[in-house]
Design a protein that fits this description.
Distance between the termini: 86 Å
Largest sheet: 10 strands, mixed
Strand content: 35-45%
Helix content: 10-25%
Number of helices: 11
Radius of gyration: 39 Å
Oligomer: single chain
């Protein structure tokens, strides 16, 4: 081996690069006649290179077949950006006029080879490749000096000095071979690296020049009356014909047939030898790019065996497998055959965690009304009167497209960030209404305390300016006030409270301006809400791919990658709106699930089953005004709790509680859930949430009594700060988290 390496290095040194004379315009390298002994060394080096690659391919052979694993074949096309570095001098005659240093050109190439598995994680790639290493340099040359050409003006018959752009386009092609060691970081994701050797079979260049100035179209080279000229076009002499270096890549394999796969990759080459060196340009090429290759995994086809079917009485769930037949006993030694068997079953998971062995999925359609009281504050940064970027702001040109009904899919925090546009739209529709904008500040925020009361008034003026300039609201309807702390201030001695005290409060003259926002939508809920798949695999070799696919009428509802998917630990399908089945199934309709596994040899086995869908039977004599909805749900958020308080703002909350009470019917179910923000300890937050939910329950029961309605079953729950309702890093998120959420359910059948 040392002899091989020594001969290869000797070959690198066998093509010297002495400095040569100038051939008119560029540094050229004269060819040198080799002696008979030197030619013999070259041939011996090439012979040893061939032996090196042959040995590299032969070494893993025993390990490969010892593991009963077969090689795979691949062909591909890389597309690389050939980044070049050099020091090629440009000449006018014998006078240097520039230097080519940095080049780049994108080119395609081609390769093919064999992959030998060395175990579950390692493999060896033997490649033959043709690499297009062509690159291009551009340099500006100018100045009047000796031998500099002149431009002739065809109209004025004058000779002028010129600026020129000179290009050096090198055409380089290398035929070579590489041996790469690959490591499987993740299933199908490989990192590869290894040496390559190659022989330059193309090495020429084309040096051209074009006029850059003067820009007069009548200007021409005086020598040929053209705007471009060829400096030289010939073979690059005295190059290092034998090239060596390292290749590296990262690839991911995408199987699409039992034996076929696509393998996209990114990588590059790092040369050890230069194209030219020893003062003759020192040209090196660093190809970087991507490739796509087609991979064929060679495996012997399994002997067919009858499919194993497991029949369930209700519902029937066929389980199909494709096992490998077991060789019959024989006195002779029979090679061990690969085996791959799979099976799968589905379990329904109810809301309470109870498992259902033969799930039947039903879809319930619910009309949901969400009621969000307006949080009529705008919060500001310390020392700033600029409205923060998280608030949505329209322009005079886009305001006409704004409609608060478009916010029906948003949550309370997203809706709040449109508060100024909601306010502007409502003021525009109610020309008699007005608002008072009260700017406040923190006494202990560093910047606020330094600026004093001026920052509070400036904040109110920023809101006034926006409503006036964008929404066209008269400033007389937007009165300004300022004060130090808000009337219901948060604790100003900590950072959270200080951020909540830096705000503008919006006080309306009419309750319609800050009335709660109502949104409506149709929700579909599946029962059971989750399906847990239990697959089993019996295999004698590694698994390359495993997927569970759920379909309805050929449409994919959910696909789980059992090797990389985040849900693969439990193979769980949560039936959400994105993967919801058709909610109007026909009689006998069902969902089909398929579990497919591919082993490391490319063999495939699959099993499938069905999940029945429940068809709802509806009364055909229903009144025309009836709908197909199963349930109506109304959800209310009572967000009007001050910092560390369980007292509701009576003026704001009475309207919402009265509306809640009006929807209560005989079979209504009411649930009240208390929440807090994440400031304070858990015990305090639990007590505070409990006090808030009991306060809301008392108000609701009092309203039901006043309306002379039967009190509906009422469930209360205190969640404290355990539910992360909104982003508590911003003040509006904390304020919105201080809430009691009410859910009112009415069955519609």
């Amino acid at each position: 081996m040392l002899s091989i390496v020594g001969d290869a290095l000797a070959l690198f040194r066998s093509v010297p690069n002495p400095a040569s004379g100038m051939n008119g315009v560029a540094k050229k390298i004269r060819a040198r006649n080799y002696s008979a002994s030197r030619r013999a060394r070259v041939f011996r080096a090439w012979g040893n290179v061939v032996l090196f690659f042959a040995a590299a391919l032969w070494v893993p052979r025993g390990a490969i077949f010892a593991q009963d694993q077969k090689p795979s074949f691949f062909v591909g096309v890389p597309f690389t950006s050939n980044i070049a570095s050099a020091s090629i001098e440009a000449y006018d005659g014998s006078t240097q006029c520039g230097i080519f240093q940095h080049g780049n050109e994108g080119t395609p190439s081609v390769f093919g080879g064999i992959t030998f598995p060395l175990g579950s994680k390692f493999s060896l790639d033997a490649k033959l490749e043709y690499d297009n290493l062509s690159t291009s340099f551009t340099d500006s040359v100018s100045t009047l000096q000796k031998n500099t050409p002149l431009a002739f003006n065809l109209v004025g018959n004058t000779y002028d000095g010129i600026w020129r752009n000179r290009s050096y386009d090198a055409t380089l092609g290398m035929a070579g071979a590489a041996v790469l060691v690959s490591y499987s970081v993740l299933p199908r994701l490989n990192v590869s690296a290894g040496p390559y050797m190659g022989f330059l079979i193309q090495h020429s260049y084309d040096e051209t020049e074009e006029l850059a100035a003067p820009t007069d179209p009548n200007a021409r080279y005086a020598s040929d009356s053209l705007t471009t000229r060829t400096i030289a076009k010939t073979t690059i002499s005295n190059v290092n014909l034998l090239q060596a270096g390292f290749e590296y890549s990262i690839s991911y394999e995408l199987p699409f047939e039992p034996h076929l796969a696509l393998r996209p990759s990114i990588g590059g080459m790092f040369p050890i030898t230069a194209i030219t060196s020893n003062g003759n340009g020192n040209l090196k090429i660093y190809p970087v790019g991507g490739s796509i290759s087609l991979v064929y995994h060679f495996t012997e086809p399994p002997e067919p065996v009858p499919a194993i079917v497991n029949n369930f009485e209700k519902p029937p769930v066929p389980i199909e497998t494709q096992p490998i037949a077991t060789p019959a006993a024989s006195a002779s030694v029979v090679p061990k055959r690969a085996m791959l068997r799979v099976s799968v079953k589905a379990l329904g998971i109810e809301e309470d965690g109870r498992e259902v062995s033969e799930p039947v999925v039903s879809i319930e359609r619910t009309h949901v009304t969400e009621v969000y009281p307006m949080l009529h504050y705008v919060f500001f940064e310390d020392g700033s009167s600029e409205i923060p970027e998280r608030y949505h702001l329209e322009t005079a040109a886009t305001r006409a497209r704004f409609d608060e009904k478009d916010l029906f899919t948003a949550n309370a925090l997203e809706i709040h960030h449109h508060v100024l546009d909601i306010l502007g739209r409502r003021l525009a529709k109610n020309p008699e209404a007005s608002v008072t904008l009260v700017g406040t500040r923190s006494e202990h925020s560093p910047e606020d305390s330094a600026l004093g009361s001026s920052v509070a008034l400036a904040r109110a003026r920023s809101v006034q300016d926006y409503l006036a300039t964008v929404w066209g609201i008269s400033r007389e309807r937007l009165r300004l006030r300022e004060r130090t702390l808000p009337e219901a201030a948060s604790d100003d001695h900590n950072a959270f409270g200080q951020a909540e005290n830096r705000r503008v409060e919006i006080i309306p003259s009419s309750p319609d301006i800050t009335a709660p926002l109502w949104t409506e939508r149709i929700e579909r809920v599946a029962t059971p809400p989750r399906i847990d798949f239990e697959p089993e695999i019996t295999a004698s070799s590694g698994i390359r791919a495993a997927t569970i696919t759920v379909l309805q009428h050929g449409r994919i509802l959910r696909e789980i990658d059992a090797l990389t998917d985040s849900a693969a630990s439990e193979y769980l399908w949560t039936i959400d709106e994105r993967s919801m089945p058709d909610d109007a199934p026909s009689a006998g309709d069902s969902l089909r699930y398929i579990f497919t596994a591919v082993d490391s040899l490319g063999d495939t086995a699959s099993a499938n089953g069905v999940i029945l869908l429940k068809k709802e039977t509806r009364d055909t004599t229903m009144h025309a005004s009836d709908t197909s909805l199963d349930k109506q749900v109304e959800r209310y958020s009572l967000i009007l709790f001050d910092y560390s308080s369980s007292q509701l703002d009576k003026k704001e909350s009475d309207l919402i509680v009265r509306e809640m009470a009006s929807t209560v019917q005989g079979q209504t179910r009411v649930t009240l859930t208390g929440h807090t923000d994440k400031t304070g300890d858990d015990a305090f937050n639990d007590r505070l949430a409990r006090d808030r939910v009991m306060r809301a329950a008392t108000m609701l029961e009092a309203e039901l009594t006043q309306l002379r309605k039967t009190h509906a079953p009422l469930t209360t729950e205190s969640r404290g700060s355990r539910d992360n309702l909104f982003d508590n890093s911003i003040p509006e998120g904390r304020v919105l988290s201080r809430t009691v959420r009410a859910t009112i359910e009415n069955d519609m059948k």
